[in-house]
Amino acid sequence: MNTPFAIEVDKLTKRFGDFIAVNAITFKVKKGEIFGFLGANGAGKTTAIKMLIGLSKPTEGMGKIAGFNVDTEPEKIKKNIGYMSQKFSLYDDLTVVENIQFYGGIYGLSRKKIKEKTTEILEELELTEVSKSLVISLPLGWKQRLAFAISMVHDPEIVFLDEPTGGVDPRVRRQFWETIYQVAEKGRTVFVTTHYMDEAEYCDRVSIMVAGKIEALDTPHNLKQQFEATSMDEVFLKLAR
Amino acid sequence: MNILAYIIQKEFIQIIRNKAILPMMTVLPIVQLIVLSNAASNEVKNVNVVVVDMDQSESSRTLNHKIIANDRITLVATSFNTNEAYFYLQENTSDIVIEIPPNFENDYINGKQPKIQLLVNATNGQQAIVGSGYLKAIVASFNAKLIQKVIPDISISKQSNTTISSRYWYNPELKYTHFMAPGILAQLTALLTIILSAMNVVREREVGTIEQINVTPLKKWQFILGKLIPFLCIGLVLFTVGIIASKLIFNIPILGNLLLLFGYTTLNIIAVLGLGLLISNFADTQQQAIFIAFFFIIIFVLMSGLFTPIDSMPKWAQQLTIGNPLAHFISVSRKVLMKGSGFWNIRFEFLYTFILAFIFNGLAVWSYKKQV
Ligand SMILES: Nc1ncnc2c1ncn2[C@@H]1O[C@H](COP(=O)(O)OP(=O)(O)OP(=O)(O)O)[C@@H](O)[C@H]1O
Ligand SMILES: [Mg+2]
User: Superkingdom of the source (chain B) (predicted)?
Assistant: First the structure.
């Protein structure tokens, strides 16, 4: 792969009947970038992500992830991406370790690799003590961080996080963003949606989606200048109006 | 460990942790066997008879005792007068009047073939057919010629007696549970595996974990097979529990080769699981899955030959049962257990079930969409 871009999207569109959920969005994300994908409820963020990761077929337009076409090569994309869904996606009735093993297993990791990964995740998230507890018994913040770690169990180049910090307290959100920075430092691309405008400030670049369209796309600094705002919150409010 | 092993391992952990599945595999089959084999049978447990003994001889009394000794027959009254006996029939207090003619013993000894008359109250057809069947069997041991006469003014339907003999051919003791238990066992296994498999996949869809699986490079057939194998094991455990329970509780005959029966059962469960997985691909919620599953289950059960013999269905319905895995399952378990049939006798069931397994599972893999 010799392009500098991890994600290239050109006029990508999704219709549900007459309704256009995602309307011809166009953007590029550089490798190693933290890309914030903002938008109000129902703006079409999740729908867009699902097209990018091969869960949903685009109605029109073109998308390339890690150099593979989203329309024709979804299975090739899957080896190179991690995805943390907006819906909680771990097995409640499995323990922390069993969840890691299962996802490591279906990504085809070797037994040795799974062992390594398990120790690594447990230590990094300080979950060693609860490693044999069922996931259902963990607080939401822990679950979310575990889900993030598991979505990266196969060391993907690009990771898509759909509202990873929804509903968790500020302390856990900070931890979460520290992890995101660590991931990006290793040269991985992070594509993240969020509702929290303060989180937008942590991103290298952000796009703001309104009713299926991308209305603004730049670094947080430039966006604030462009809209003569002091915070991303203000930018967002001006756009939404 | 390869990818498939990880899926199967995960399913087994979930199955073992699920508090509902273990009782479903053990208690449910036993309870259903007991309740259904007894309640849903149209076995005739008790026939009320009136004996009119006009001979009063040694022989007639022996016959009389033989009749009374049968635990399915209750003697309501003895009488010397046929007209008085008719009264019991009219009142519905008796199902059958047995008339032993005068000179019964004499004629019998002189080889004149005395005629015993059975007057059958045919308002309850089942009672009439089966009851007279019992009596015929008893009287037959006397090697006497029997005339059965159905009283015209009471009889509503006069049915042919030939049906009884064929139905009880492989069940000489007329134990209805022996006839019902293998069928109920087959029906329960099929029903539970369809529902469990359909619900399982749909639950993953509801919770959202299936999406997470769909973004992995997992192949469709790996997913389907990973679901199929654990539920096949559940089905086999359930069937085994059922067989053991039927043997212990009802002492059902096991005349055929159990290995053959389990071989067929495995094939059959694979077929119905394929259907369950197919259903799950078209249902978004567990509720929908249950509704679709029940649609099939009701048709399967009613047209399975469990309660109504397939032979007595209209021709078109009989042909439809070829597509009914449950009909084949019931037929095989009855044949193997009660008749001791070998592979050759159930080759068509094997063939049809194999085709069904292929179709259902093929469709399940084909219609499983990783992408919407
Ligand atoms: N399968 C579907 N069929 C019809 N409409 C859909 C479907 N999926 C999503 N939509 C609609 O598309 C629009 C965008 O939904 P989407 O989930 O992408 O929004 P979102 O930006 O992720 O919102 P949120 O912040 O609430 O997660 C919504 O109006 C939603 O109702
Ligand atoms: Mg969303």
Answer: Bacteria
